[in-house]
Amino acid sequence: VQLQASGGGLVQAGGSLRLSCTASGFTVSRYTVGWFRQAPGKEREFVATIFRGQRTYYADSEKGRFTISKDNAKNTVYLQIDNLKSEDTAVYYCAASARLIASSLRLKDQYEYWGLGTQVTVSS
Predict the structure, then answer these.
(1) What is the per-residue pLDDT across 69-82, written as a single tens digit (0 to 9) for each?
(2) What number of CA atoms fall less than 13 Å from residue 10's CA on the CB side?
(3) Residue 110 in this model has a pLDDT that exceeds 70
(4) Burial of 5 (0-12, 13-18, 19+ CB in 10 A)
(5) β-strand 76-81 against 118-123: which pairing, if any?
(6) Where would you tag: which of 37, 45, 85, 100 has the fewest CB atoms within 10 A of its CB?
(7) Model confidence at 53: pLDDT above 90
């Protein structure tokens, strides 16, 4: 099982990015896949997750600017980030779980598989 996050980069504040998380060794249609981020000196925090049945959940602070989606045919989960702010600067990780329950979706320890992350840097 492998996850490869990509799509990060240097973006000006107010811009947009679409991050991709491509899975291999398993199919995203059967797993819950989430996005987390970690800023320098801070804990890794939950951003969004999408369940097998397409239900989506977001961190309360990210509703409206973040959109998680998936393309089962491409075995890829996306995170669209709009109106980027300097505080969005972080390494973004995707993670997957075969057994996650809704009450634990924000807990990074409940995701069994992790990708290496992609850097997002927002300049003001």
Answers:
(1) 999 999 999 999 99
(2) 2
(3) yes
(4) buried
(5) unpaired
(6) 85
(7) no
User: Which amino acid does the sequence have at 121?
Assistant: T
Q: Give the model's confidence band at 62: pLDDT under 50 very low, under 70 low, under 90 confident, else very high.
A: low
Give the SS3 label for residue 24: strand
d(CA 51, CA 28): 9
* Residue 89: CA count within 13 A, CB half-sphere: 12
Three-state secondary structure readout of 53-118: CCCEEECHHHECCEEEEEECCCCEEEEEECCCCHHHCEEEEEEEECCCCHHHCCCHHHCCEECCCE
pLDDT tens figures, 24-42 = 999 999 999 999 999 999 9
